[in-house]
Here is the input.
Amino acid sequence: MRTLIVIPTYNEKQNIQKLIPRIKKAMPGVHVLVVDDGSPDGTAKAVKAMAKSGGIKVIERPGKMGLGTAYVDGFKYAVAHGYDYIFEMDADLSHNPKYLPDFMKEAKSNDLVIGSRYINGVSVVNWPIRRLILSKFANFYARFITGLPLTDCTSGFKCYRRKVLEAINLDDIHSDGYAFQIEMHYKALKRGFKLKEIPIIFVDRHAGSSKMSKRVMTEAAIIVWKLKLGITK
Ligand SMILES: Nc1nc2c(ncn2[C@@H]2O[C@H](COP(=O)(O)OP(=O)(O)OP(=O)(O)O)[C@@H](O)[C@H]2O)c(=O)[nH]1
Ligand SMILES: [Mg+2]
Here is the structure.
């Protein structure tokens, strides 16, 4: 069974240099694909220097094109190269690689395994209360409108079996950020796949800067209606 971890990056040089060795340690033999958008801090160059040890690949895009299309490009690569298990993971060390084996275990009997911050109360470290309230509200709103049976609809730490990505028309995905996560969960569920949440502890980034914006939130607020009303299928 072949596994690929897809990591979108924009100015994450410091973080990705720490993250990749931790991934390799947590799950030896796994392959890593970094999708970088011409990060001015030289993220891509730093990853390419690490790639000599094998199992690491970089897709370089010319400019900042968004997290959603970065994942779509990564997923297309994964499908084309026949990977069986494909992970989504942030570069900013919010997602701890120690959970990777937990995902793999559940992926044997599920199609999409999602790391949830909200299974056991709230498992978020270092978030300002404002951010937590926003995330909880976004989840409540998304669940209420779409009916997604998840505690963490906007999680970006997950493992797909290849058949899920093959069943979704990736060229139809235009959303970004939170909206992207909700859309992928919804489309997987609608296509009859088995979703399963596992608990993770999420740690806020220490280095680099956030790419969260008002646009990301507005887009998420709209996508749930597009999905619910069948405008986006
Ligand atoms: N390739 C690419 N990666 C991106 C883009 N925007 C964000 N990312 C990456 O996507 C991941 C998640 O982005 P974050 O900025 O951490 O978003 P967030 O987790 O909602 O917010 P913070 O954790 O507060 O920063 C990180 O690895 C980013 O580097 C983009 O436009 N292109
Ligand atoms: Mg982050």
About this structure: The beta strands are 3-9, 31-36, 56-60, 85-88, 112-116, 124-125, 158-161, 195-199, 202-203. The mean pLDDT is 96. The two ends are 30 Å apart (CA to CA).
